Predict the structure.
Amino acid sequence: MTETSKSRWIVEALELHESALIRYARWILSDLESAREVVQETFLRLCKEDPARIEGHLAQWLFTVCRNLAFDARKKESRMTPLGDTEIAVAPDLDERRTVSQVFQLVETLPKNQREVIYLKFQCDLSYKEISEVTKLSVSNVGFLIHSAVRAIRKQMLPEVPQVPQAHQAIRRMQ
Amino acid sequence: MNTPRINPDDPKWTAYVLGELSEAERAEIEQLLESSDEARALVDELTLATATLKEELIPLSSFSMTPEQKAAILSAAQPVSQSSGSWFGLFPAKWAWGLAATAAVAVFGVTTLMVVNQDSQEPTRPIAQVAENRVPAEETKAIETAPPQAPVQAARQQEQKLRERADASASQGQSAMGYIVGGNVAAPRKDEKSESLQGAASNAAPPPPAPVQPERALQRTIVTPAVTEQEVRTAQASLPEELRANVGIATQERARREAGPVAAAPPPPAPPAVTAPGRGGGGGGRGGGGGAAAGGRGGVAGGAGPGIAQGQAGVVRDGMVIDDFRAAAAPPPPPAAPPARPASSTFVDNNVRAVPANTEAYDRIVDNPFIRTIQEPLATFSIDVDTASYANVRRFLTQNQMPPRDAVRIEEMINYFSYDYAQPTGDAPIAPNMEVAASPWNPQNRLVRIGIKARDINANRRPPSNLVFLIDVSGSMNTPQKLPLVKAGLRMLVDRLGENDNVSIVVYAGVSGLVLPSTSAIRKERIQQAIDSLQPGGSTNGASGIQLAYNQAVSNFIRGGTNRVILMTDGDFNVGVTNQGELTRLIEDRARSGVFLSVLGFGMSNIKDSTLEKLADQGNGNYAYIDTINEARKVLVEEMGSTLVTIAKDVKIQVDFNPARVEAYRLIGYENRLLRTEDFNNDMKDAGDMGAGHTVTALFEVVPKGGNVPGPSIDPSKYLLDQPQIAAAGAGGRGNANAASAEMLTLRVRYKQPDSDTSTRMDVPFVDRGSTFQRASADFRFAVSVAAFGMVLRDSPYRGNTTLETVSEMAQNSRGSDRNGYRQEFIELVQRARRLR
C-alpha cells in the first residue's frame, strides 16, 4: 500500500467514523473537547497501523481504541473512579432531545452495561460482533444485554404502542 | 396444534429483528413465526421497539475534530512528511489538512487523467458514461443526505464503493459548474444559438457539456456557474503554491472530464458527427465543446453560446426555469466582424483597440493591437486570476488536437504558473514587481513583465469557521427568486471556503433535518451535492429548524473560530408554534453560546421582514435581503466569502507609458479584461480579486521610441506637438517634464482592502535598464515562453518569428527549480504541439 492510498484510507476512515467516535467518546467523557482529543489520538494510532491488518474490522478497531483511550482519559481526570465502575451518565444529545420523546430518557434509566451496548448498536450502528470486540463482552452477552434492554424499553413504552401485526413479515421481506 | 414454547427472554428474538442471526437460526425463527401467534407478537413488539430506538437515537448532528487535529492526523498518515519532516513543516499546521487532502486529490487526478485518455480513444463517449461517473457520487449523496438511521452500517457498505470511486470523485473537483445532471442538460434549451447544439446533442448521444471555462460575460453578468468556477480559482489562490497547482490538476481534470464527451472524442463513426456548424460551433464554449469540431473560429454566436449554455446549466440544475437568469446570462450576440467601435470611442485609428472597453465577453478573441503611446499612453485592465485556459489547451493537446485558437487565452496560460515574486511589505496586501528585457521574437522590442503578488495568508489570521446553513425549503420558497437563489448563492460561497472552514446544512419545512453534517470545505464536491439535493416542499416550522441548526453549531463549535448559523428563508414560518417571543428568546439564549446568526431574506413577495430582522438582532447577527443573483453574490461571496479568503479586491492595473520612451505598446492577452481608462479610478467598477499568496502576471510588448510599429502608419495630428518636441520633453503638449526622466513607464495599481469600498492606489515608476532576453530572470523567460506558445497557438499576427521550436527552447532554458513539474509538463505540451503541426 502506497503512502497515498494510506492517506486516502485514513481520510475515508475519518469520513465514516469520525463523528460517531467523537459522540461515543463524548458519551464516556462528558466533554466534547476531551472527546475530540481522544478521537484524534485514535486516528493517530490508526496512522501507525498497517491497513492490511485492520482491513475488514476497521470499525471495531477504532471503537475499541477510542473506548480504551476514553476510559484512560477519564481515569486520569478523576482518579477516584475505578475503571470497572465507569459510569456513562450523560445523554449524548440531551440538547437535541428536548423536544423528542421519552425514549431517550428511558435509555438513560438502563443499567450502564446495557446502555453502552444499546448506544453502540443503535447510535453507532455496530453489529453484535463488533460490539463484542469493542466491549470485550461475548457476542451472546451482547445479544443478551441488547435483548433485555430492548424489552425493558418496550415494556415502558407499552401504553402507547399501536398494533403493527405485519411488522415481522416486513422484516422477512427485508431479509 | 402443537404450538412450540416461546421463551421471550431468549436474546435470539432481538437478534433476529436486528438481522444478527445466522441463516440457520433465522430459518428456525421464521418457522416459529409461521406457527406461533405468540412469536409473531413478540417479534412485532421487538421490531417496533428497536425501530423506535433507532429513530430516537440516531444522531441528529454530527461531530468533527478541529481542523488542527485533523491536520495532525493527515500529516501522520503521510510517512513521507514524517521522515523528512519538512514538507508539512513548510506550512502552518492548518494547511496540512488541505495539503494532504489535496495531495490525494492530485494523485487521483492523475489517475483519472489516464482513464479519460483511454476513454477518448474510444469512438464516442456516450452520455451513459457521464451518467456513470455521476452514479457513485449520487450514492454518496444518498448516504450523506439520508437521515442517518444506519450511518456506520450504510457507510461501511459504501466503503468499497467509496474506494472505487475515490479517484473519480476527487477529480470531479469542487465546483458545481458544468455538472451534467442526468441527461437533462440539453432539454430546456430554446434559444436559437443553442439549437444546433441541441441538434447535435440529439444526433450524437453526448449532450454538449456546460462550458468548462468562465466567460467574461458570465462573470460580469454574474451567472452562477461561471462565477463559482472563478471563485474556485480565487479560493485556490489562498492555498500555498504547491497546493494550488495540485488543485489545478484536479480542477482541470474535471474540466477535461466534463468537456470530454463532445470535444474530446474523435468524430464518432456511427452517429452523425458532432459537427455543429457555424453559429452553434462555439456553443460548447472555449471549453472546446463544439468548437473543436467546428474549427477554431466557431462563428460569432459562439460568444453568446457559452453564456446561454451555462446559464441554463444552472437553471436546469435547479429544476426550474429562471428567465431572469437566462436573460442576464446571454449577452447579445456580437456582430460578425470585429466589433465596431461605438461612436463614443475616443480612439480614431482602426488599428487601435478594436473593442473599446470590453465590458462584454466575446468568445472570439482579437489580439490586442499595438497602441501608440502618443494616442493613448494609459493601458488599463483588470487582473485575471483564472487559469482555466491552460488546462483546456492541455486537454486538447493531450488528445492530439490543436486547440481552437479562441480557446487560448494567453493571460490564463501565463497565470497558470506561479512565479517567485517578492512578498508585499508593510501594510499593502499586494506588491507589484516589474522586469523588462528584449523580446525574443522581435529583438528591437522590449517585453515588460508586470507581476502582482498578494500577501501569503498567515493561517492564524483567519480563524477557522464553523458555518451552519439553515435553509427554508418550504413550499413558499419554491419560486425562482428564492430557493434557486439560495442554492446559487450557497454554491458561490462554498467555492470560496477553504480547508479551515466547515459547513453543515440543515433544512426545515414540515420537518427539519440535517442534510449535510459538518464537512470541511476542502470537500467542495460533497457540499455541492448536498446543495444540489435541496428541494422545495412542505410547510415551515422555523423553530425546530433553528434549534437543530444551533445544536449543530454547538456540536462543532470551534473555540476562537467563527461559529455562525446562517438562516436563509422568506421568513414565512407558517406551521406550528411560531410564537415570535419564544423564537427570539431561543435565539437570544443561543447567541450567548458564541454562535452567531445571520439571516438572509429571500424572495420579493411574502418575506417577513420584521420576523427576520428581529431574529438577527437577537442572534447577534446581521440581516440581509437577497432578491437577485447579483445581490446573492454580493452578500454571500463578496461580503461573507471574501472576508474569509480574499486579500485584495477589485485589483486594477493601469500602465502609464512615457511617450518619450515608448513608441507603442501591446498588452499580451487580457483581451477580455480591458477596462476603460476612466474605470481605473471608478471604485464602482468591479475587477478581479486576489486571494492570499496569489500571483498575477501580465506582459507588455513595447516598441521603444522611434521603433517600427506594426500596421499602417498614422499621420500625426497637425495640432499636437510633433514627435521631436515630445522627445525633447518640453513642458506642455503630450510630454511634460516627467517625460524627460529615464522612466519607461509608471505602473499604477488600484486595489481595495477586502472590507473597503474605496480603493488604494500605488504608483511605481520603472526604468528600462536594457537587459537582454538571456539575462532576464528564469521566471521572466518562462512567462514569455508561455505567452509565445499562446501566440503561436492563436496564430497571432504579433508573434514575429516565434515558432514552437523557439518556444520549446525558451521554456527548456527557463525551467528553474520547477518543484511541481509543471514547467516540465509545459515543455512536453510544446513538444506535443510540434508533433501535431
Chain A touches chain B through 76 residues (CB under 8 Å). The CA atoms of residues 31 and 50 of chain A lie 31 Å apart.
